[in-house]
Every structure is written in C-alpha cells, then in structure tokens.
C-alpha cells in the first residue's frame, strides 16, 4: 500500500475500526488525555499517522487508530481545533471519538494502547484497558502506571507533548519522506488519494507538520513562555517548519506569527459558549482513594465566567461538580490582562466531604509559597442566597507563579488528597 494523506488515513482507520468491532478482531489505538486539548488530539493524529505510514505497517495494512478522548458532541467546544484541522484538510466530524468506540468493554479479541500527552488511563478506559497499554509519550509527571518494558516509554519535560512526538517520530518520518521523493511518478491523480509522488507527499507532510506545530505554538505561546519552553520544543519547531517550507503549496505563504495568532484567537473566542460548555471544554479529573478531583482550565478570568452564569455562579460550579461526582473542584484561569501581561487565578471548592475540605486546606497551607497564591476577592462571588447551597470550603486566589499550569497544580492537589 502506498502513502495516503492524513485525512484519508482517518477515513480508512474509522472503517478498519468498524470492521474490527463487527468481526471481534484486534485493534491498536493511540489516545490522548481526556481534556482533549489541541496537544492531545494532534499527538494522537500525528503519531498514529506516522507509525501507520511505515513500510512494514503499510504492507500488512495495519493502522494505529488515533482516538480523540471525548464524545463527538464536545468537538464543537474547541474552535481552535477546527481552525487547526482546516490546515490539514480535516473536518472535526472525521475524527475518531469515544462515540466510535461505543460501549465498554469493546467487542474485540484483543487491543493495544499507546498513550500520548498522559501516562495513565482514567475512568472507564482505565478499568478495562490499563493492562493493555504498551507505549507512552508524555510530558507530565510519571505516575508509574505504565510498564518499564513499554516501547516507546518516553516521559520527559517539554512545553508540548507534540514536541516529544515529533522528536520520536523524526527518523521514521525522514525515511517515509525520502522513500516517497525517490519514487517520482505519481501512482494516482487525486491530491487526497493514495500515491507516492513527492509533490503530493510533501503537501501531506506539511499538513501533518502544521498539526504538531500548531499545538507547540499554542502550548508555549509561540515559544515565548520561558517557564514552559525546552530544547525539545525549539528543535521540534525547527524540524516541523522545515517540513512546511519544503512544500511548494504551503511553504511560500507560511508565517509563524500569523499561524499562532489565528489559532490563539480561535482558542480565546468563547462568546458563543455557555458557562457549562466553557468548564467542560478543557477538563480533567482524577481519583485518589475515595476522593475525586476535577480541574477546568479556562482562558478567561473568573469575572468573565461570572458574567456567563445564567443563575448564581457558585451554584453553577457546584452543579457542574456534583454531576461529575466530585469532592474537590478547581477552576484555573489564564488570560492576558488589559496591560498585556499574563495572569492566572485559582478557584478551589470542597463539596460536602470532610476529607476533601481537609485536603483543600492542606493544599492551601503547603502550596501557597510555591504557587505564590494571593487571596482574591471572594466577596464578589455569590456564596449565599435563595437556592444556593452552602459550600464547606472555597478559596479564590490570584496565582502569581504564572508558570505553574494544571500540569503542576494537578499533582499538588492530588498529593494533598492522599
């Protein structure tokens, strides 16, 4: 089998998944974390596409199926994803989501799972498939849930997991691109078909490079966030931009700043979303013993969220948390101030559970210095009134350590829960 575009790969992978489910066959998956942010989605796409494009996989017609770790309905909450996918000729509806998997356990004889942008499955997938994880590439703290014999087992610090994926796949990608360019004549005439012509494949390589690059630029704020940027990110950007510039179609018009600004504008445009939509747009949760923690990451300040609330703001947060059976719930905001600076806030609630309030208090006492937490204006939040439940414990902080994202705050909260 010759090479295919990333869009054709997705269509083919979805068909192969349906057939495997029907035949009680085997399937290999690559899946990002349950927040399904840009990095998670594109890591799965890029890794699945490049690994499936290796000659031995193509000859055997084996595909590594990339799964976006949310229901299909939640794709509409991610305008930045839609904007980035357009650069690769992909529609959101063509992604493979949890809906395509169906009910768990899957009617498959066997599965294997590669994790990208996380190193421990969560929720129902964890219950059924944690023992089937065979590979991981991630940039979060190592939770020691994946076997040391997994291959690859790459868990390193980077601003974006896409940088680690690009680095790991570089040798494979170079070999695939070299083989395509040496073939010469096209085996087909469709710009989205299955061919081995360099003119087409350089375009496809540029599309895949843009998927990875977009995530890196968003995660590192165009390589300007020194608290996040590593050499992995800088090297990945150079490599991916070389892939883009090698394409006659994409190279001539590529501009990094314009590309970043397009995606960032889409990411921060939340006006069409409800408060609940915003809270679940970039959401992750974990369990530690009998406590469950959820964290929503939001690119607007708390005041913006208050204005979004159709009823009492705090009650809306409580309802959101209770629907997910949480004992601890945090909202982390990150946004650009009117003066052009970068700011963070952290809002933490404990819900009707003595241990969760103890955990919240422990977090406040032990992490204030590291995170440089300063008390915010809680009196601006409605905490009492008709129809509003009493909150056992709630704090709002201005987080002056703006380099500490959920990747750091999440583990700190989980440690306090233990």
UniProtKB/TrEMBL annotation:
DHHA2 domain segment(s): 260-417
GO MF terms held by the record: exopolyphosphatase activity; metal ion binding
Superkingdom assignment: Eukaryota
Keyword line: Hydrolase, Manganese, Metal-binding
Record has Transferase as a keyword: no
Cofactor(s) the protein requires to work: Mn(2+)
Protein name, per record: DHHA2 domain-containing protein
């Amino acid at each position: 089998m010759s090479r295919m575009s990333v869009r054709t790969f997705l269509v083919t992978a979805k068909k192969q998944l349906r057939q495997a489910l029907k035949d009680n066959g085997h399937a290999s998956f690559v899946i990002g974390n349950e927040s399904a942010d840009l990095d998670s989605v594109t890591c799965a796409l890029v890794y699945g596409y490049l690994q499936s494009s290796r000659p031995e996989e193509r000859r055997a017609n084996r595909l590594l199926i990339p799964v976006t770790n949310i229901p299909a309905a939640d794709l509409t909450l991610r305008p930045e994803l839609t904007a980035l996918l357009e650069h690769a000729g992909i529609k959101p509806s063509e992604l493979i989501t949890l809906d395509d998997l169906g009910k768990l356990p899957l009617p498959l004889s066997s599965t294997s799972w590669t994790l990208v942008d996380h190193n421990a499955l969560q929720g129902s997938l964890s219950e059924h498939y944690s023992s089937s994880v065979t590979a991981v590439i991630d940039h979060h703290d190592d939770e020691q849930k994946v076997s040391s014999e997994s291959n690859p087992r790459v868990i390193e610090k980077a601003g974006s997991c896409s940088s680690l994926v690009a680095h790991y796949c570089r040798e494979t990608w170079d070999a695939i691109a070299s083989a395509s360019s040496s073939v010469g004549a096209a085996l087909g005439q469709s710009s989205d078909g299955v061919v081995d012509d360099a003119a087409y494949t350089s375009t496809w390589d540029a599309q895949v490079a843009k998927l990875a690059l977009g995530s890196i630029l968003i995660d590192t704020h165009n390589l300007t966030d020194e608290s996040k940027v590593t050499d992995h990110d800088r090297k990945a950007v150079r490599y991916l931009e070389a892939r883009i510039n090698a394409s006659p179609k994409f190279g001539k018009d590529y501009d990094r700043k314009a590309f970043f600004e397009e995606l960032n504008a889409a990411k921060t445009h939340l006006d069409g979303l409800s408060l609940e939509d915003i809270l679940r747009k970039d959401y992750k949760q974990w369990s530690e013993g009998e406590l469950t923690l959820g964290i929503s990451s939001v690119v607007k300040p708390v005041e913006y969220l208050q204005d979004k609330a159709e009823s009492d703001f705090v009650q809306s947060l409580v309802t959101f948390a209770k629907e997910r059976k949480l004992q601890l719930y945090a909202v982390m905001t990150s946004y650009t101030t009117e003066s052009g600076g970068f700011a963070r806030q952290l809002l933490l609630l404990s819900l009707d559970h003595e241990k969760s309030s103890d955990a919240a208090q422990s977090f406040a006492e032990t992490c204030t210095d590291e995170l440089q937490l300063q008390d915010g204006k809680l009196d601006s939040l409605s905490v009492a009134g008709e129809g509003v439940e009493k909150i056992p414990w709630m704090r709002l902080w201005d987080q002056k350590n703006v380099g500490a994202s959920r990747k750091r705050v999440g583990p700190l909260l989980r440690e306090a829960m233990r």
